[in-house]
Amino acid sequence: MSTTTYDNICFADNPIVHLKVGAKAILYHVHKGLIHESSPFFRAAFTGGFKENSGSINLVEDDAEVFGHVVQWLYRGKLETLSKVEAHTDYDCWMKLFQLYVLADKYCILPLKNAVMDLLFQTHDLRKNNKDTETHKPPQENCITYVYENTASGSQLRRFLVTYYVWHIELDWFSESSTTEWLETIPAFGAELTKAFASRATGASSPFHDRLSFNESIRE
Question: How far apart are CA 63 and CA 25, in angstroms?
Fold first, then answer.
């Protein structure tokens, strides 16, 4: 799993910044040097010409629970709670991972994006190795809609979903009338599925065979 450490950060006498997250303004206290080192967004917010450089920032649009996993990762370098994949791979687990990836993308925390991607592959492996398909379902339509509404074209998270659905689910799903109706509501996903199916038809293997290609390149 992707991890990160910040050996050059001295926590002694390192000021604390305050992040108020979500509609209820849940308060997180984080060492300034740590969040500066992890995210260009927060580095600019707390050092630039914004009012946030006073040491406090409001993140009203973010989910406080999901942001808690960001803070956990900042200090521990791993996602201990989510690494258990919630013991199953139902809607809640997929959605939590997608929400965390989107949040890491929003704040440009590339190592965290890679850590979440690792967990997505672990979740996929659990489903592939478990015959109880009713419990271990692939990402459902509402999860896919969320991803496409909150990511840009070219996102590795979109690529993960397209690969999953073209190479790693029962193709009977595509023949269902409800599937056709739903795909009409999310044309970007449908277009990418078509392109991937064309690639599969020419004999291309699943991109999942090269899992590192789904990771972000991080400059040291």
Answer: 10
Tokens read off for 19? 């992040």
Contact 151, 105 (CB under 8 A): yes
Cα separation, 215 vs 136, in Å, equals 24
Q: Which of 12, 13, 43, 30 is nearest to 70 (CA)?
A: 30
| Tens-place pLDDT, residues 143-194 | 999 999 999 999 999 999 999 999 988 888 898 999 999 999 999 999 999 9
In degrees and rounded to multiples of 5, residue 160 shows phi and psi of -60, -45
Average pLDDT over residues 116-128: 87
Q: Please tell me the pTM assigned to this model.
A: 0.88
The encoded tokens of residue 44 equal 């600019």
Token representation of residue 123: 């979740």
Tell me the CA end-to-end span of the chain in Å, nearest whole number. Answer: 18
Name residues whose C-beta falls within 8 Å of residue 152's C-beta, 6 or more positions apart in sequence: none
- Measured at the alpha carbon of residue 183, what is the angle toward residues 178 and 186, in degrees to the nearest 5? 140
